[in-house]
Design brief:
This protein is α/β, with parallel strands linked by helices and 329 residues long. The protein has 2 domains: 169 residues, FAD/NAD(P)-binding domain; 140 residues, 3-Layer(bba) Sandwich (FAD/NAD(P)-binding domain), CATH 3.50.50.60. Helix content is 28%, strand content 27%. It is built from 9 helices and 21 strands. It has a 5-stranded parallel sheet with strand order 5-2-1-9-20. The protein has a 4-stranded parallel sheet with strand order 13-12-11-17. A 3-stranded antiparallel sheet has the order 6-7-8. Strand 7 and strand 8 form a beta hairpin. Helix 1 packs parallel to helix 8 and helix 6 packs across helix 9.
């Protein structure tokens, strides 16, 4: 029996573990993750923050359900280092040898280099959700830095809690990658009409805290907010791989078999970089997890990424309706 250790219980790692166990029942599959609840839906965190979704509905695969599938779990432990020659991973309080190691460590929320911006101002995991949730009851005003899809969702969640929300987007218009100029203009006006303050071409220069308030210098003015959150993309988690000597650029570099520069070490999901691209999409991570299992089981030669067409979640309106309304305007 050979052993595959998967570092990370996100959608990529969990999908790979489940698929590998189905294709290779005799394989010892071990999931190691610093969390304790198993796989949950990160993309629905704003819904829980707004109160529209109970937190328990986030859980997709509990530790017990994974164990029932024959997958061993080591949760609440963080992988700290890796010995490539001895094929051993070292995690909090222990170590374990592997025949194959899969990095599925995901990504952290990215924080722009603005004085006063902190990692705790992001919404990326359950700890963030709990921390931010405690701040909402006493907050009357909020600033969300970043007007992308997640930023707008977070802003809508704050608004649903009765908080007066300002969104500062550094680009000249909202969602330029998926909307035309006319559609962006319509969305901005729609959000303004529905009680959100939207600033485009916005520049936040500095944030300081005084008397329990965040004092924000932006666009030549100073404003105070009770809560400040930031949504500015992701940063692949690559520290352990890089320290071990695995090739890393933006993400852990892989080929079309998900192989890294190190023998018997693979990477999938938000931590992985394929052909210079980190996908950062839930469906892409799931696709990679499924494909890796097929490759390891000898069912697939290599992976060709499909074209992913995610359906954007906009606050209070669908993309189809937005486009129709903008066309009529």
């Amino acid at each position: 029996m050979s052993r595959t250790i998967i570092a990370g219980c996100g959608i990529a790692g969990t999908t790979a573990a489940c698929a590998l166990k189905e294709l290779m029942p005799g394989e010892e599959v071990i999931l190691i993750d610093s969390g304790s609840c198993g796989l949950y839906s990160r993309i629905r965190l704003p819904e829980v923050l707004s109160g529209k979704l109970p937190e328990e509905k986030l859980i997709l695969s509990s530790p017990s359900s994974l164990n029932e599938k024959g997958i061993q779990t080591i949760f609440g432990k963080k992988i700290e280092s890796l010995d490539l020659e001895k094929k051993t991973v070292f995690y909090t309080g222990g170590s374990m040898s592997y025949d194959r190691l899969v990095f599925a460590t995901g990504a952290d929320a990215s924080v722009p280099p603005v004085p006063g911006l902190e990692q705790e101002m992001t919404l990326r995991d359950l700890d963030d959700l709990h921390r931010i949730g405690k701040l909402l009851p006493s907050a009357g005003t909020g600033l969300v830095i970043g007007g992308g899809l997640l930023g707008l969702e977070i802003a809508e969640s704050l608004k649903a809690k009765g908080i007066a929300v300002t969104v500062s987007e550094i680009a000249e218009r909202l969602l330029p990658a998926i909307l035309t100029e006319k559609e962006s203009a319509w969305l901005k006006q729609y959000l303004l009409d529905n009680g959100m303050n939207i600033i485009t071409s916005g520049h936040v220069e500095k944030i300081t805290k005084a008397d329990g308030k965040y004092v924000v210098e932006m666009d030549g003015k100073t404003q105070e907010f009770d809560i400040v959150l930031v949504s500015a993309g992701i940063r692949p988690v690559t520290g352990v791989a890089k320290a071990a000597g695995v090739k890393v650029e933006r993400g852990i570099c892989i080929n079309h078999k998900f192989e890294t520069s190190a023998k018997d070490v693979y990477a999938i999901g938000d931590c992985a970089e394929l052909d210079g691209r980190v996908y950062g999409l839930w469906m892409a991570s799931k696709s990679q997890g499924t494909a890796l299992a097929s490759i390891l089981a000898g069912k697939m030669e290599s992976y060709t990424p499909p074209v992913f067409s995610p359906v954007p979640k906009l606050p209070g309106i669908t993309l189809k309706v937005l486009k129709e309304k903008a066309a009529q305007a």
